[in-house]
Specification:
alpha+beta, 4-stranded mixed β-sheet, 38% helix, elongated
């Protein structure tokens, strides 16, 4: 079987369907993880200093008890600096839709740690496409939305509007949900769909925040 190309390749990488389960992942670009390198390097230097001091203590070249305060501070700083670096280096975000259980789970993963937020699929009744507000044209987001009071779930971002529209249509077809496009719409636009003004406004306001960590 030949590998998918063009639009089909984009859809294949954006959404993976396995039986009754649909998985959508928002991949982080390699350059987004470069920010973790200075933090990890500084943390490793601090821990190297601690290990070197302990080694000298073991072989009798120095007494580590005289440096206990410095060693504890170095360990604390190594953790404070290294943990955020490790989080940036290993961060993943994806959503899993279980059609059998009628549940959608947004997952933020940092290395082996996963923070899950399960939601009932019945809480959502349409899929929206939004832009990134004042910086329009950089990111087009695809989101699961519901009625008033329902917090939307952002699924995926695309650099091109056509790719976002295609993905939203395919996902809507799989979930049997309609598509509503709010691109180039202001949160207070009177032309917003009256059935979901709150959700559209919330998504458009969220789009104004920086998304530099996500792929373009």
């Amino acid at each position: 079987m030949s590998a998918p190309t063009g639009r089909n390749a984009t859809m294949a990488t954006a959404m993976i369907r396995d039986g009754n389960t649909i998985r959508v992942e928002w991949p982080i670009p390699w350059y987004g993880r470069l920010f973790s390198l200075p933090l990890l390097a500084a943390s490793l230097c601090l821990f190297y200093y601690v290990l070197l001091a302990l080694r000298n203590h073991v072989i009798g070249l120095a007494d580590a008890s005289d440096q206990i305060v410095d060693l504890l501070i170095s360990c604390a700083l190594g953790l404070v600096i290294g943990v955020p670096g490790l989080m940036v280096a290993t961060f993943r975000y994806f959503a899993v839709v279980d059609m059998a259980l009628r549940q959608v789970t947004a997952i933020r993963q940092f290395g082996p740690l996963k923070f899950r937020r399960p939601r009932n699929l019945s809480d959502f009744n349409f899929i929206s496409v939004t832009d990134d507000g004042e910086k329009r044209g950089l990111v087009f987001g695809v989101n699961l939305c519901g009625q008033k009071g329902t917090t939307p779930v952002t699924l995926r971002g695309f650099a091109k509007r056509q790719a976002a529209d295609d993905f939203a249509r395919e996902l809507g077809s799989a979930l049997k949900l309609p598509l509503k496009n709010f691109v180039d719409t202001e949160p207070d636009d009177p032309d917003l769909d009256p059935d979901a003004p709150t959700e559209a406004a919330a998504l458009l306001q969220r789009g104004r925040k920086s998304r530099e960590a996500f792929p373009r």
